[in-house]
Amino acid sequence: MNKVAYFPYYADENVKILSMGYNLSRISMYIAVAEDENADVLKYAEKAEEGEVKKVKVKIPKFSTETSVDAKELLKSMGVEKTFDESPSAYHFKYMFNDTVNNAESIYVSNVLQKAYISIDEEGTEAAAVSYVTQTGAMDEIEPEEIYEFTADKPFTYFIKDNSNGEILFMGRFASAK
Asked: Is the pLDDT of residue 90 over 70?
């Protein structure tokens, strides 16, 4: 992506962070290039939001990434165990179903899978995420003179955030172009 436009932008000796809002949306994508890869980029995102909108020449490599995580073991390690217990004595999801569902007491979750995809190119950003749960049992402003430069030519962190509630919808780290 190569463009010159107005964006919420923040830079200091530790980080440069750019916020690109989606048209008619409360959702924004943030790109942070930090000197320290362990920098708290969410803290800097707040500074970009609170700062002024600046004219920025943006250079970001095209990339796409996809990830898949089997969340069953992660959830179990966090204490969500009974959900996956298939023994007849375990508490299951029977109270979620009415009396017309046969063997509702034998329903349990057998797997949880999380997938995410994000792609950035000249046209913009495309992102999607899905969580898949398998159940088993009975059922299945002012224009500044200066033009700032934001070039993501080394590893950077990116995330998509819902600005109305602060929730991070996607987050990743780009290391190099293919």
From this structure: no
Specify whether the CB–CB gap between 173 and 118 falls below 8 A: no
H or E element in which residue 135 lies: strand 124-136
β-bridge partners, 69: 114
Look at residue 94 in the predicted model and tell me its pLDDT. Answer: 65
**pLDDT class of 141 with cuts at 50, 70, 90:** very low
Length of the chain counted residue by residue: 178
Burial 141-171 (b: 16+ CB within 10 A, else e): eeeeeeebebebeeebbbbbbeeeeeeeebe
Q: Please write down the HEC assignment for all residues of 44-83.
A: HHHHHHHCCEEEEEEECCCEEEEEEEECHHHHHHCCCCHH
In 3D, which of 142, 147, 119, 145 has the Cα closest to residue 58? 147
CA–CA separation, 148 and 58 (whole Å): 9
